[in-house]
UniProtKB/TrEMBL annotation:
GO terms for biological process: lipid A biosynthetic process; lipopolysaccharide biosynthetic process. It comes from Gemmatirosa kalamazoonensis. One of its GO terms (molecular function) is transmembrane transporter activity. This is Rhodanese domain-containing protein. Gene3D superfamilies: 1.10.3730.20.
């Protein structure tokens, strides 16, 4: 993993944390997310058309298949995560869904690309996963840790792990795609496709009045989230071309620490002792990821 790839991942992580902060500050409604997805497609449409215009025709051959699979995987991730949330609390399912991808990626990366994770990489994975779990505890005590894992036998865990599996598979597909087709055309295509499906679902569920009201209330924030969301994942895709999938996804978890900092500074969120310890573990894991690249 080159230094350039590391810097791209770090910038992607900070951007990711910031758009999530904007999303949370605006309330994070389905209507807001749907609008932000539409903004992504509109804002980056000129770039997409310019790439189509300048790229050789043979460079775009076969892109449709990659875009279609990427769109399906994105929609499946929405469904599995939403199902996990219906069966369990956000604080329990989210860390399993996001951090759990690191459980699958070393094997998937080895099978698909011959990637190997060194000792520092495994230590980094352990630190990041440990930090994500510790952050969810109300206090630092073994009884709280046992209580956390006592919830790990129900449907919430099953669907959260399924989400982690989808994310890991999607990461491998992303890396395969950007190695074979135009990166921006691929990314824009599946983002716009999944976003259109999501917005159509929101309109059917909540109606146009709710979407228009959300636009009037938080239109500027929705545009910013759309721009930063695409930028964040685009940077990660650039890094995937040069870096191992496990290292890219692991290093991106630094966004967790940035998110906690933004929440504490601008949203007045309480940073408990477990959160401080968890963030420290995540940062240590990210440092090991960068060192062991």
């Amino acid at each position: 993993m080159t230094l350039t790839a590391v810097l791209l991942v770090l910038l992607s992580a900070v951007t990711h944390a910031y758009w999530n902060y904007l999303l949370k500050r605006a309330g994070g409604s389905h209507a807001f997310v749907g609008i932000s997805k539409a903004c992504e497609a509109v804002v980056y449409l000129p770039v997409f058309l310019a790439v189509l215009w300048t790229a050789p025709s043979n460079a775009l051959r076969g892109t449709g298949v990659y875009v279609l699979v990427g769109t399906v995987m994105t929609l499946v991730s929405y469904v599995t995560l939403a199902t996990a949330y219906r069966h369990g609390d956000l604080s329990f399912t989210y860390p399993i869904a996001r951090g759990g991808a690191l459980l699958f990626l070393p094997a998937f990366g080895w099978l698909a690309f011959g990637e190997r994770v060194g000792p520092l990489g495994w230590a980094a994975i352990a630190a990041i996963l440990g930090g994500v779990v510790v952050m969810q505890l109300p206090r630092l005590a073994w009884v709280e840790l046992r209580a956390f894992f006592s919830h790990a036998s129900g449907p919430a865990t099953l669907f959260a792990l399924l989400m982690a599996l989808v994310l890991a598979t999607g990461t491998i597909w992303d890396k395969l795609s950007v190695m074979r087709v135009n990166l921006f055309v691929y990314f824009y295509g599946y983002t716009a496709g999944a976003g259109a499906c999501y917005l159509a679902w929101v309109l059917r569920r909540q109606g146009g009045d709710a979407v228009r009201a959300e636009w009037r209330a938080h239109g500027g924030a929705a545009v910013a989230v759309g721009v930063l969301n695409t930028l964040s994942y685009g940077l990660a895709l650039f890094a995937l071309r040069d870096g191992g999938s496990t290292y890219v996804v692991g290093l991106r978890q630094i966004s967790i620490a940035v998110g906690v900092l933004l929440g504490a500074r601008f949203l007045g969120e309480h940073v408990s002792t477990p959160r401080r310890v968890g963030v420290t573990l995540v940062l240590a894991g990210c440092f090991l990821m960068a060192w062991g690249r």
